[in-house]
Structure formats: C-alpha cells, structure tokens
Design goal:
The protein is mainly alpha-helical. Helices cover about 65% and strands about 5% of the residues. It has two domains: about 90 residues, lambda repressor-like DNA-binding domains (434 Repressor (Amino-terminal Domain)); about 140 residues, no CATH class. The radius of gyration is 24 Å and the shape is elongated.
Length: about 260
C-alpha cells in the first residue's frame, strides 16, 4: 500500500500556507482544529484525517490530488496511470483508518413525535385555562426546534480529527455550538446528543405544567417576573449546564 511521505506533505502544506499569508493558528481556526495539529503536520509528526483533506485543500488553494501528491500540477499535465494508482491507494489508506458512523437513533425520533403531540395538547389546554405566556411559548418552540435537530438531523459521530485535537466548536449547517473549555470527541459526543434530546423533550412536556403552577401560586406581575427569570434559567441553564457536566465526565479518550 502506498503511504504518503509525511515530511514531504508537511513541507508542502507549510509552503502553501505561507504563500496564502496565514498563520498556523488562522488555518487551524478555519478548520476548527487546534494550531498544534497544523504544527504536527508541518513537522511531519502526523498527517490529517480524510475528513480534513477537502477543507484543507480548499483553504490552501490546491486540489486534493495535488495535496496527496505533495506538489502542484500544471493544468495540461495529465496524470499517468501509475500516478493515478498512487493517488487512489493513498486515499484508500486514509479511508481504511476511519471508523464508520453510527446509525441514527430511531427511538428518539418516536419519542420526539409523541412528546410534540402531547405538548400541543398541553398548549391548547393552557390556552383554554389562560395560563399560557410568551416565555412559555418561546421555550416550547425552542424545545421543538432543538428536538428536530438532536432527534433527527444530528450526526451520531464526529469527524476523526475531533479525537486527536482539543476542539470546543461544532458546526453542522446552520447549527453551531461553541462550548468554551470543553473538548468535544467521540467519547462524549453521544452523551451530549442525549442531553440535547432529553432537554428538548422535557421543555416541551414540562413547561405547560410549570406555567399552570405559576398561575395558581402567583398574581399577575409577580408571575410574569418569575416566569421570565425561571424561563431563562431553564431554557439556557437547563441546556448548557448538563452538557458541560456530561461532556467533562466522558471527555477522556486515547490521544494519538
């Protein structure tokens, strides 16, 4: 199996980065990895995972083929059969090392749909009882929107480079999450997804009941103030605090 020359690869990456006029830190930020990872590439200590080949090539202004061959190619310079074979083997050697992604959790999809139906009924009853508030509606809406992502759209596995670097930011389309001080990896990611799922379902189901209790215990203005501050704590603290607790508890992984 053809293996990429780490020294040649590192030298090529460093040359391209300097031509672009960007620092190791700037390149790392654009790839959502640590600057130590870029330093390791350029000093031949390691090479990037297959997940990073396309975004790295884009940032450096070359094709993936040029990146794997560690040299620029003229537009009219077609690859020979031997060179094509080398590129393919290099890509295969990368992909063979990558773990497969997990299957989607259908159980949480069913739980979400059932919870959404129940929460709609609760919301209608709250409206009839006159206990519904703007904060309650917003909180339940957030729970429903987050639930769609966490229960249906979230990727069950992070790219391999998360396991090799300290990365606290995650971006998936329009969904962005920056957990300063918490390293995301495939050891804690599944637990974090479950926190998001439980949070979404709980907000949808519990908030109408909480709103009703507030209505019974507190008069008008006082109730609105309590509802606002409690709602902020529940919707923000109820999401981020458990994520930090679970994320730090299961953050250990084998470093390479």
């Amino acid at each position: 199996m053809f293996n990429i020359d780490k020294q040649e690869f590192g030298t090529f990456v460093a040359m391209l980065r300097k031509e672009k006029g960007i620092t190791q830190k700037e390149l790392a930020e654009r790839l959502f990895i640590s600057d130590k990872a870029v330093s390791k590439w350029e000093t031949a200590a390691s090479v990037p995972s297959i997940d990073l080949l396309i975004p790295l090539a884009d940032q450096l202004g070359v094709t993936v083929t040029e990146l794997l061959l560690c040299r620029r190619m003229e537009q009219d310079n077609a690859l020979s059969a031997t060179q094509v074979e080398q590129v393919v083997k290099t890509a295969i050697s990368y992909s063979d090392k990558q773990p497969r992604t997990y299957q989607k959790n259908r159980k949480w999809g069913l739980i979400y749909i059932l919870s959404l139906l129940i929460s709609c009924l609760e919301l209608w009853l709250s409206y009839r009882a006159g206990s519904i508030t703007i904060v309650q509606s917003v909180a339940m809406g957030m729970g429903a929107i987050f639930g769609i992502y966490f229960c249906f759209l979230a990727k069950e596995k992070l790219p391999a480079y998360y396991d090799k670097n300290h990365i606290s930011a995650y971006t998936d389309g329009i969904f962005e999450m920056n957990l300063t001080g918490l390293s995301l990896n495939n050891n804690n990611w599944g637990k974090i997804l479950n926190v998001g799922r439980i949070y979404s379902v709980t907000i949808m189901l519990a908030y109408p009941i909480i709103g009703y209790i507030e209505t019974q215990l507190f008069p008008g203005i006082l109730r609105d103030m309590i509802d606002l501050y409690f709602g902020l704590f529940l919707t923000l603290g109820g999401f981020f605090i458990p994520i930090y607790i679970v994320g730090n508890k299961y953050k250990e992984r084998e470093w390479r």
